[in-house]
UniProtKB/TrEMBL annotation:
Pfam families reported for this sequence: BPD_transp_1 (PF00528)
Record-linked NCBIfam families: HEQRo_perm_3TM
Family, per entry: Belongs to the binding-protein-dependent transport system permease family.
One of the record's GO molecular function terms: transmembrane transporter activity
InterPro entries xrefs: AA_ABC_transptr_permease_3TM, ArtM/GltK/GlnP/TcyL/YhdX-like, MetI-like, MetI-like_sf
Residue ranges annotated for the ABC transmembrane type-1 domain, each copy included: 15-203
Listed name of the protein: L-cystine transport system permease protein tcyB
Length: 216
């Protein structure tokens, strides 16, 4: 009982951070990923190279390392962010890169004939993209986007390394005080519940597009 009295308030505080970071990352990275994907496909070679390098770095290094670099490294360059600001920036940069590559693959999977048909019908390239190509690409990329969203829920646990209270740190703090693994079991149940809720939402979204989302 004493353990729960300590864990529950910490868990409530940690949940705010976990859910806040989850929502902020999605709200910022998903819209940013589409223009990054388009630049990766259509722009000139120099910008393509810059975009490819950014995506390579984000996908080729651990998110934890990126988070530490933003928090400890940017001040050396004259840019100091708050602890929470550094975490959000690192997560958004990382997930924008992953989502951009998913979108790039989805857009390029649409047959070139779709573009040509739009041109024959006298449609502008932008109209063809937003009304013909993008809706089809969205259906293609949704399962992969869904997998990344599930991963994001679990990745939020990395913030405790910077001393921020999330639900994993709530478990760790309580566990150290009571020398027990039970708080980690409670937190595992919380993570499973979050994944179940998000997966159900993704299932409904994809069902409208004629498919179903399968959890890993």
């Amino acid at each position: 009982m004493n353990m729960l009295r300590m864990l529950l308030p910490l868990l409530g505080e940690g949940m705010k951070m976990t859910l806040g970071l989850f929502v902020l990352t999605l709200v910022l990275s998903l819209p940013l990923s589409l223009p990054v994907a388009l630049v990766r496909i259509q722009s000139n070679k120099f910008i393509q190279t810059l975009t490819r390098t950014y995506i390579y770095i984000m996908r080729g290094t651990p998110l934890l390392l990126q988070m530490l670099f933003v928090f400890f490294g940017l001040p050396l360059l004259g840019l100091t962010l708050s602890r929470n600001g550094s975490i959000v920036l690192a997560f958004v940069l990382n997930y924008t890169a992953y989502f951009a590559e998913i979108y790039r693959g989805g857009i390029q999977s649409i047959p070139q004939g779709q573009w040509e048909a739009g041109k024959v019908l006298g449609l502008s390239r932008s109209f063809t993209f937003f009304k013909v190509i993008l809706p089809q690409a969205n259906r293609v990329v949704l399962p992969s986007i869904g997998n990344e969203v599930i991963t994001l829920i679990k990745d939020t646990s990395l913030v405790y390394t910077l001393g921020v209270m999330d639900i994993l740190k709530a478990a760790k703090t309580t566990s150290m005080n009571f020398s027990s693994l039970v708080p980690y079991i409670y937190v595992a149940v919380v993570y499973l519940a979050l994944v179940a809720v998000v997966s159900a939402i993704l299932n409904k979204i994809e069902a409208r597009g004629g498919g179903s989302y399968v959890k890993n």
